[in-house]
């Protein structure tokens, strides 16, 4: 266990449920400063939910979430917004503003939070767009982008304000191998060059492991495995081996909890 | 039986919760309007989509309603030899009732539904959440300008509706049916009172504008973030707006013109 | 983004709305004939004002010269006291002008008609019109008519 100061995010005994459905049943998790931490787990385990909890968009039922020493659950609106200014987030769907074009989407946080003049904003926007390879698409509307492109624009927007931390929800989904490679490199470089802390939520085992310093695996509301990425790769845990190897058979069920299959089929 | 009673209880609590959310939402929105003083551009952009784009339907409908009033009014009045009062009939109907009410119904269908759908879709596509995560309050940035624009546009549209309607009545009554033009205007001016009729009509349209702005933005904001949820929010906006406008109209009419 | 065109469009929209409001105030309503309260007031007493209301018109020879400002009831004389606002440009009514309450058309609204007399002295602000004729109440007329018929036939 590292000391508190080295961790940007500390989550202790986190519990959360959507109505009767328990998503998190006591999670402990630390995200070290300046590192890339990957959070992996099967679809529907609550990875997106975890990011929302960290961002203070939803409140946990129990437990503590500390970001940069601040207790997210105890913050008032003002404190929360001040904290969020220092956090960039890439949404799973991109969440681009559909009435603004690509350029204006990336410029949005700059216009809202800074008094920079137009030429500075332009320079910043073009730099960010160039880094995701979409400077040429600046005049397109979000509806004219492919899913992968939209996510890259959202990435450019997430880093527009040079945050202390960026949370990426599925940055690799829908990317072709070329842009995937570029993105992996980009996230790593951004992290190291700007001294960011990055959290990546992903199913893409190879990419996530290639880029992450630390990895947490979540399943059934608990952290199954957590630690430095290189240690995880040769983990002896059956669960980890199943997930990494993409095996359908193992401790992780592929199916959402259900009644007995044969029984339901033969019913009536 | 107990099931039904239980359901009734749940429904009641749900509607109460909804009412509470409504009130809270209104307070948030109103407190967000102050910050728009520094960003008038946001309101102007919304006035374009809420106001300017409702203009055609308002002008065309106003013209036809005025023409129908001219025709019907003439046919009724001519039997009493009172067709000179046509201007009064047309103007009073429009200024007191039809202008604010019909304009509000059209406005709810044209602009209110669009507002609810737009906000609901922004919610469904995580745009509102995304904004909040960028430390931009969506109520201030998205809701408040739309609310204010709808609130401003409604009385202006109602006035345009009434004015165009009076002209439509003039065209039918004076140009086509031969009522004396001087009588049309002078009788109208003699009978239509600035305070009692025109001001009260404007007050009605302001109240309707407030109600529609509130309903539409709330329904969008409170929508389930799915295609079905957005569709429901849009429908609810139009239906509720129509009912609320007619109910408010009755209350306001009773207060303003009722015998004391 | 065509901000400029949007701004101009919205500007035109607001202008049009305000013009419509102005049109309703000036061309449709009685703003032009309100006289801003710088007219003068006279009163008249009636036994029965029928359906006369505040803001009912006051006319002379069919021309609208003012409106009813207030209607009170005098408990001592059992009369209705009607206060009229006459527009400033209509002065020089003789002192013995009379006021009657008529009905416009068969079922129309009631209004006060002033009938100038022949006196030299001029009606001043605050004066009272002495000669008045109450409203004709349809039920009374019909009642009298029937009563007359009845007594006629009784004579026979
Ligand atoms: N509003 C909600 N109401 C009820 N249940 C919800 C709601 N939102 C999410 N859930 C449930 O919470 C669980 C976690 O959802 P979440 O989106 O966090 O999953 P995820 O790990 O991000 O999955 P994926 O990898 O597919 O994106 C899901 O099983 C989902 O059914
Ligand atoms: Mg997810």
Can you describe this structure?
The complex is a heterotrimer of chains A (268), B (260) and C (156). Chain A has helices at 47-54, 77-84, 102-113, 118-131, 147-158, 177-194, 205-211, 229-233, 238-245, 261-266, and strands at residues 7-18, 21-32, 36-40, 62-67, 70-71, 87-90, 165-169, 197-202, 214-219, 222-228. Chain A is built from ten helices and ten strands. The longest helix of chain A has 18 residues, at 177-194. By secondary structure, chain B is mainly α. Chain B has one domain. Helix content of chain B is 85%, strand content 0%. Chain B has helices at residues 2-33, 40-50, 55-77, 86-124, 127-133, 138-176, 181-191, 194-221, 227-257. The longest helix of chain B has 39 residues, at 86-124. The model of chain B has no long low-confidence stretch (mean pLDDT 92). With 156 residues, chain C is of the alpha/beta class. Chain C has two domains: 1-33; 36-144, no CATH class. Chain C has an eight-stranded mixed β-sheet with strand order 7-1-4-3-2-6-5-8, with no helix packed on it. In chain C, a hairpin with a 6-residue loop joins strand 5 and strand 6. The longest helix of chain C has 26 residues, at 3-28. Chain C is elongated. Chain C starts with a helix and ends with a helix. The model of chain C has no long low-confidence stretch (mean pLDDT 82). The chains are: A alpha/beta (268), B mainly alpha (260), C alpha/beta (156). Chains B and C meet through helix 2, helix 6, helix 7 and helix 8 of B and helix 1 of C. The complex binds adenosine-5'-triphosphate and magnesium ion.
Give the tags.
heterotrimer, A: 268 residues, alpha/beta, 6-stranded mixed beta sheet, 10 helices, B: 260 residues, mainly alpha, 0% strand, elongated, binds adenosine-5'-triphosphate, binds magnesium ion
Q: Briefly, what is this?
A:
Chain A is built from ten helices and ten strands. Chain A has helices spanning 47-54, 77-84, 102-113, 118-131, 147-158, 177-194, 205-211, 229-233, 238-245, 261-266; strands spanning 7-18, 21-32, 36-40, 62-67, 70-71, 87-90, 165-169, 197-202, 214-219, 222-228. In chain A, the strands form two sheets. Chain A has a six-stranded mixed sheet, sandwiched between helices. A four-stranded antiparallel sheet of chain A has the order 2-1-4-5, covered by helices on one side.
């Amino acid at each position: 266990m590292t000391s508190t100061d080295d961790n940007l995010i500390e989550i202790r005994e986190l519990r959360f449920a959507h109505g009767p459905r328990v998503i998190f049943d006591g999670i402990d998790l630390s995200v070290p400063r300046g590192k890339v931490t990957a959070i992996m787990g099967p679809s529907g385990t609550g990875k997106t939910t975890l990011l929302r909890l960290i961002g203070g968009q939803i409140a946990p039922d129990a437990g503590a979430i500390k970001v940069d020493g601040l207790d997210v659950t105890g913050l008032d609106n003002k404190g929360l917004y001040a904290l969020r200014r220092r956090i960039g987030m890439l949404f799973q769907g991109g969440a681009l503003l559909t009435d603004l074009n690509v350029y204006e989407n990336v410029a949005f946080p700059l216009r809202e939070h800074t008094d920079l003049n137009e030429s500075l904003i332009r320079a910043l926007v073009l730099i960010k767009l160039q880094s995701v390879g979409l400077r040429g698409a600046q005049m397109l509307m979000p509806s004219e982008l492919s899913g992968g492109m939209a996510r890259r624009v959202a990435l450019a927007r997430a880093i527009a304000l040079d945050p202390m931390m960026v949370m990426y929800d599925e940055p690799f989904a829908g990317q072709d191998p070329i842009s995937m490679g570029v993105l992996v490199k980009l996230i790593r470089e951004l992290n190291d060059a700007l001294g960011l802390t990055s959290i990546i939520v992903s199913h893409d085992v190879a990419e996530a492991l290639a880029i992450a310093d630390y990895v947490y695996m979540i399943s059934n509301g608990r952290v199954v495995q957590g630690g430095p990425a290189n240690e995880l790769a040769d983990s002896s845990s059956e669960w980890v081996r199943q997930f990494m190897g993409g095996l359908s058979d193992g401790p992780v069920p592929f199916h959402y909890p259900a009644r007995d299959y044969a029984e339901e089929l033969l019913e009536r | 039986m107990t099931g039904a009673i239980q359901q009734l209880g749940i429904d009641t609590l749900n509607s109460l919760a909804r009412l509470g959310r409504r009130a809270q939402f209104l307070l948030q929105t109103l407190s967000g309007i102050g910050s728009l003083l520094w960003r008038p551009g946001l309101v102007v952009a919304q006035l374009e989509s809420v106001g300017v784009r409702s203009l055609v339907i308002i002008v065309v409908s106003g013209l036809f309603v005025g023409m129908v009033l001219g025709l019907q009014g003439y046919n009724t009045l001519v039997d009493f030899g009172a067709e000179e009062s046509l201007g009064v009939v047309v103007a009073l109907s429009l200024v007191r009732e039809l202008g604010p009410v019909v304009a509000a119904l059209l406005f709810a269908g044209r602009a209110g539904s669009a507002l609810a759908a737009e906000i609901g879709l922004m919610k469904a596509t995580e745009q509102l959440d995304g904004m909040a995560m960028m430390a931009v309050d969506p109520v201030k940035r998205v809701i408040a300008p739309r609310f204010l624009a709808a609130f401003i546009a409604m009385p202006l549209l109602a006035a345009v509706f009434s004015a165009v309607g009076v002209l439509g009545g003039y065209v039918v009554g004076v140009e086509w049916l031969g009522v004396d033009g001087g009588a049309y205007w002078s009788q109208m001016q003699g009978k239509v009172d600035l305070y009692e009729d025109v001001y009260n009509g404007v007050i009605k349209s302001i109240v309707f504008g407030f109600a529609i702005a509130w309903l539409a933005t709330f329904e969008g904001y409170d929508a389930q973030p799915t295609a079905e949820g957005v569709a429901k929010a849009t429908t609810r906006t139009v239906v509720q707006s129509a009912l609320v406008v007619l109910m408010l109209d009755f209350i306001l009419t009773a207060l303003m013109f009722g015998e004391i | 983004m065509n901000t400029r065109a949007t701004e101009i469009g919205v500007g035109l929209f607001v202008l049009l709305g305000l013009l419509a409001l102005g049109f309703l105030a000036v061309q449709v309503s009685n703003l032009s004939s309100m006289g801003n309260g710088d007219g003068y007031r006279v009163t008249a007493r009636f036994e029965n004002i029928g359906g006369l209301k505040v803001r009912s018109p006051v006319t002379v020879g069919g021309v609208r010269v003012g409106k009813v400002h207030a209607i009170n009831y005098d408990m001592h004389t059992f009369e209705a006291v009607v206060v009229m606002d006459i527009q400033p440009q209509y002065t020089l009514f003789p002192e013995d002008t009379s006021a009657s309450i008529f009905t416009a058309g068969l079922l129309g609204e009631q209004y006060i008609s002033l009938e100038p007399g022949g006196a030299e002295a001029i009606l001043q602000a605050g004066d009272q019109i002495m000669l008045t004729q109450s409203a004709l109440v349809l039920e009374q007329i019909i009642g009298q008519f029937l009563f007359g018929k009845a007594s006629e036939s009784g004579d026979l």
